User: Fold these one by one.
Assistant:
Number 1:
Amino acid sequence: MLSYCLDCAANDQSCCEGKQIYITLGDVQRIREFGIKEEFHTFEPLGEDYLTGGGDPGWNPLILNEDGNRRILAVKADGNCMFLSDKGCTLPGNVRPLLCRIYPYDFTGPSITGMCQGCPISKQENWLDILNSSQMNLETAKAWVEQLYDEIYQERAAAGIIEHTQCRQHADNPASVNL
Ligand code: SF4
Ligand code: SF4
């Protein structure tokens, strides 16, 4: 873990506190295979902080169902994810939802575009070097962004919400970096 993350933990902060985390069907499957038996997700409309889709106009239409809800991690009474403990996330890294793994990178479509300003590392000029020296390196994040969009497109195509040709178009245009 980076010293910045340790500082966050020491201050009782976590990047995902109070956040609504969208999860893919792949995320659901990985968490179930890990052995979580209780319900861990719910379907809800966009909260106020999520109406802009993080600045990506294509994001919300891609994740919202016809009823206006999208699949998110369930939260406890304190508003935090049910997997968040006072020692951080209780899911192993390779089981965590893709959006959790991708943070603190920003992305638009399948392109990584920068870094979320809410993370203190973003205040460092050499933020990319810092991330590249950790398990949150750019190449790994790119692969996760690609997997995220693959899983979303496949689910939408299977539900008949988008055409299978869009999946193929996506496969021909994998995630990129546009920093
Ligand atoms: S990724 Fe950023 S916001 Fe999250 S714990 Fe680490 S330093 Fe804090
Ligand atoms: S799964 Fe882990 S990283 Fe993701 S929101 Fe929950 S506690 Fe945070």
Number 2:
Amino acid sequence: MKRNTVILYHPKVDFEPYYPCYWAPLSILSVASPLVAQNKNVILLDGNLGDDEKDKSIIRENLDNCICIGVSTMIGGRQLERALNFAAFVKKLSPRMPIVFGGPLPTIIPETLLLSPLVDFVVRGQGEKPFSDLVNAIKNGCEDQNIPGVTTSRGEINGSPIFLDKNQFPPYPWELLEIERYIRQDKYLGKRVMNYVSSQGCPYKCGYCNEVASFNCRWKSFSAHRMLNEIQELKKGYGLDGVKFYDSNFFVNPRRVLEFSEGLLRGDFRLSWGASSHPKGIIKLADNLGLIRSSGLNRLLIGMESGSQASLDYISKGCTVEDNVITAEICARHKIPATFTFIVGIPGVEDDIVPTLEFILKIKRIWNEFDVKIHFYAPMPGTPLFGKAIELGYKPPGTPEEWSRYDYYIAQTPWLNKGQEKKVRMFDDFYCNFLFPPQWFIDLISRNIFSRTTYSLLRKLVGLRCKFHFYCFPYEMNWFRKITGKKVFD
Ligand code: B12
Ligand code: SF4
């Protein structure tokens, strides 16, 4: 009997400190779609569900009929470490079983991963077509042929990654997942919310960004028609009341966004949704944002990156500080809850911290309800700024094991010192909220009249701290800890 099974594994990601939950693994679900259409028996295993022993027995039961095993990984969260442990488990049971790594991390470090004897092939970029071709080649015993998008253990990179129109792929085979386990409550989007990804890549060329390295400033998406059909099916089947779009940049094509929003209104979907955008995506749609908002848009994630124009220019962000202010004003006008993200520690930029902290205060003055998150620049192989980072002394991990330990949340670059890192974290995690308290913060400190009065006094002090960027002797943090019993950060 010819082997007909493919197992796809998504290792667990450590979520703390910033991600409280996991979502449906659309990475392996996408790769599965053409194989399901070819009547292959595809099994998806998601480490996030914590069924490790069950997963191992599924592997044991199906290995004899297996063509190959695919493993998906991204940077951080110890996902690569678990991916390698999983591969070791498989190779112990079946040393000749081909193991294929794919996903955002293998895409940018294919040769490094192939240093490991546990990895036989790496698929870079969009995985649907190359993986399907590879599976069929292995099945037919001709895996030695060159398959575009597949890097082999001989270290051969076959052309640039494949990037095809996404509408030609069969629908996501949702039936392979236990959907109920991925439906969650979301503060902004509803009680029964699921994730969905409708596009890949991004046309912008931000110098630090993974999408540039992986998709070379290209963007492909599902049509609005396809999204509406698929989301309606999900809504009917699972009673969803919200969808969280995890596209890197959902708002690239204004016509598609409008068609989608009009379709939601016409079909009376009554669904909340949230998505990410470049600031210019919102500015371009400013005149239509009322309609888009009324279709259910209730959450935006926007990468503003910096309050320093020099930094925005240097990273080729494609927008100005003024554009970022206009974007915040548009969101405030339509009362769309938004998170704005920033990156500090860009290599080759003199000081991006102070202008960024000041800019964040300006944004908060526009609407207190905005969330902000500051990240430290993390050099990614293949991105335009990576060479500059190396030139300035950054030493990237060199082996699969070193990449396994990579912590995205700690500043990795030698030009940012511990004092600067601490200042940013104190501002981001505490002082910004102290000065512009969101509701959860107010609830925490409003225990009694004494705490409320002390807070009002301390707030004046914090105003001065933020004005002069003086974060030594953080008395207010001790006070906050005493009043609320909560630690601000480790
Ligand atoms: C959802 C998500 C998460 C979830 C985890 C996944 C989950 N299911 O729960 C959460 C929220 C926990 C998360 C966390 C993080 N994430 Co995240 N995340 C995403 C996001 C937004 C969507 C992933 C997705 O579903 N994509 C849709 C599918 C279809 O695309 P895909 O995964 O790329 O899969 C395609 C190919 O890669 C390939 N492929 C994928 N797997 C496989 C496997 C095989 C065998 C093959 C052949 C091919 C293949 O084929 C697929 C179809 O074409 C992506 C951005 C994005 N839009 O992709 C970032 C992304 C994956 N995250 C990223 C990062 C940096 C992180 C964090 C480190 C930090 C952060 N700020 O987000 C943390 C990690 C946690 C930690 N503690 O350190 C980066 C990864 C960069 C890299 N090179 O690895 C991405 C790409 C965002 C970005 N543009 O920078 N993330
Ligand atoms: S707009 Fe966002 S997704 Fe697009 S290249 Fe810039 S950072 Fe990356």
